[in-house]
Amino acid sequence: MAHHRSDVLAHAVTLLDTHGLSALTMRRLGAELGVQPSAIYHHFASKQALLAAVADEILARGARPRQAAAWPERLREVCAELRHAMLAVTDGADVVATVWAFGLGATAPVAEMEEVLADAEVPDELVAVASRTLVHYVFGHAFEEQTARQAVRLGAVERSLESLPDFDLGLDLVVDGLRARLA
Q1: What are the C-alpha distances in Å from 29 to residues 26, 40, 47, 96, 108?
Q2: Picking from 1-15, 18-32, 110-124, which range would have the lowest pLDDT averaged per residue?
Q3: Burial of 127 by CB count in 10 Å (0-12 exposed, 13-18 middle, 19+ buried)?
Q4: Centroid of chain to Cα 22
Q5: How far apart are CA 40 and CA 95, in angstroms?
Q6: Which of 2, 27, 43, 47 is deepest in the core (most CB within 10 A)?
Q7: Distance of alpha carbon 119 from alpha carbon 126, whole angstroms
Q8: Model pLDDT, residue 79
Q9: What is the pLDDT of residues 120-134, one digit of tens each?
Q10: Global pTM?
Q11: CA angle 23, 107, 132 (to 5 degrees)
Q12: pLDDT averaged over the chain?
């Protein structure tokens, strides 16, 4: 049975969510789809290309309509959406952050942050720094939260999940710092 690119991608996301990043191999993906691993390369030139597509799919599945008008709230919406999208899939934070760091994809959140900042007339020299500061905060928080939740669920550690830092409060600190810089 021939598989379309979207079928392969959907199964890759399911495999990631079910078994984690270490299980997402071309060989296993091919085996689960009933094809040789080389058939996967027909749709994705490399494992990195597959991971980039998976990261973009994670972000697409987490997309939410925007409601905020003011730039600070718009940034909060983008950041919250990014966090929720990554947390919705096992190892999602690891995949999305890695793909973004390698320049392979997952660029939509940063592009949207830059657009929000430019619309707010943030000076050009601060737009890239502010957007990267925000995305690094979201990646770091999501990675810590996801890792802690998985470790607790697997019984690897005994930790109260209440000890995780408050995402919204931390985000407010970053956004308030940017607002103060602009004042």
Answers
A1: 5, 8, 11, 19, 26
A2: 1-15
A3: middle
A4: 17
A5: 19
A6: 43
A7: 13
A8: 98
A9: 999 999 999 999 999
A10: 0.92
A11: 105
A12: 94
Tokens 């979207």 found at: 6
d(C-alpha 94, C-alpha 119), whole Å: 30
Q: Say which residues have a Cβ less than 8 Å from residue 95's Cβ, sequence separation at least 6.
A: 16, 21, 51, 54, 55, 58, 89
Exposed, middle or buried by CB within 10 Å (0-12, 13-18, 19+), for 60? Answer: exposed
Q: How many helices (H) and strands (E) does the chain have?
A: 9, 0
Domains of the chain: 5-59 (1.10.10.60), 65-182 (1.10.357.10)
**Closest C-alpha to 85, from 142, 6, 9, 140:** 142
Q: Are 96 and 135 in contact (CB under 8 A)?
A: no
Residue 182 has pLDDT above 60, yes or no: yes
**If you search the block for the tokens 């810590």, which residue do you land on?**
144
Q: Residue 23's pLDDT is what?
A: 94
